[in-house]
């Protein structure tokens, strides 16, 4: 890739000509220079390969939140699209909407969480509406729900969330974790 | 971008042969790479999140016809440690290793993995496990126990409350 001085210059086929090419130089030293772009192309190719390996076609189903720190797991499966119940130290959120305070849930005598149940039932209604023309709708209903809880959330909260999800028709609970399978694979090879 | 060609040989009659070196225009390739890098950077997912699938207590488990060579394996998770019990009569206590910096008990997951492997070797068809957790158990500890069970090959995990 050449860098050339702006302005008039001979065409490529005349550049080497002693007759025509030299006329335009007027005795000046040429300032044209060739830039070696091979290392840059190499680097860009490496970057593309690295980013392609990182690429995920499913996109982000769960968004990392500041107040939720997920635990690590080495044998997790790929996460699938399902309603997300996010449990932090202070509140329970479904699909970005707050449904309950953790402190209230702990104080409450009722095992089910009404706000959560209502929201999950709405999600199920939406799924039913989308699949209303599907003859195998009942068969295709898997009842998946993703629980994205902070690692310090106690089981007494979790069990209420799981119970409420079950009441709303979501029996397959998926615990969200940080995927450490690559770390485990590297450790095994060492 | 020019390839390193051999020097142009001179002809016998003093005529120069046409050079065989060719210049490849790499600008379109650089443009394409730059666009691809921009797209991939925008769509990159840096945090890999996985899931551990569990059934809520009493709703999971394979049908009875498939449970010929299977037993019921339960891991009870408490503050003092774990208890591994099976319907074959085995009951084994796995005490906690101590308290961590945050005051929470550190479960002995290595021993649990060894014992679950023994169960799996004895009953190769076994795929289900029930984790019964006490109220104070943290989500992180529960996930670690489930992860250990899935790693051993007991992939169908049910979670229920202890007691």
Please outline what is shown here.
The complex is a heterodimer of chains A (190) and B (163). Chain A is an alpha/beta fold and 190 residues long. Chain A has helices at residues 12-15, 38-54, 102-107, 114-130, 137-140, 155-167, 181-189; strands at 2-3, 33-34, 72-73, 77-78, 84-87, 91-94, 97-101, 144-149, 172-179.
Itemize the secondary structure elements and their pairings.
The complex is a heterodimer of chains A (190) and B (163).
Chain A: E1 2-3, H1 12-15, E2 33-34, H2 38-54, E3 72-73, E4 77-78, E5 84-87, E6 91-94, E7 97-101, H3 102-107, H4 114-130, H5 137-140, E8 144-149, H6 155-167, E9 172-179, H7 181-189
Parallel strand pairs in A: 3-9, 5-8, 8-9
Antiparallel strand pairs in A: 1-2, 5-6, 6-7
Chain B: H1 27-43, E1 49-56, E2 73-77, E3 81-86, E4 91-95, E5 98-99, E6 105-106, H2 109-122, E7 128-133, H3 139-152, E8 156-161
Helix pairs in contact in B: 2-3
What does this structure look like?
The complex is a heterodimer of chains A (190) and B (163). In chain A, 37% of the residues lie in helices and 18% in strands. Chain A has helices spanning 12-15, 38-54, 102-107, 114-130, 137-140, 155-167, 181-189; strands at 2-3, 33-34, 72-73, 77-78, 84-87, 91-94, 97-101, 144-149, 172-179. A six-stranded mixed sheet of chain A has the order 3-9-8-5-6-7. A two-stranded antiparallel sheet of chain A has the order 1-2. In chain A, helix 4 (114-130) packs across helix 6. The longest helix of chain A has 17 residues, at 38-54. With 163 residues, chain B is α/β, with parallel strands linked by helices. Chain B has a domain at 54-161: Nucleotidyltransferase, domain 5, CATH 3.30.420. Chain B is built from three helices and eight strands; from the N terminus they run H-E-E-E-E-E-E-H-E-H-E. In chain B, helix 2 runs parallel beside helix 3 (139-152). The longest helix of chain B has 17 residues, at 27-43. Classes of the chains: A alpha/beta (190), B alpha/beta (163). At the A-B interface, helix 2, strand 4, helix 6 and strand 9 of A face helix 1, strand 1 and helix 3 of B. Strand 4 (77-78) of chain A pairs antiparallel with strand 1 of chain B, so a sheet runs across the interface.
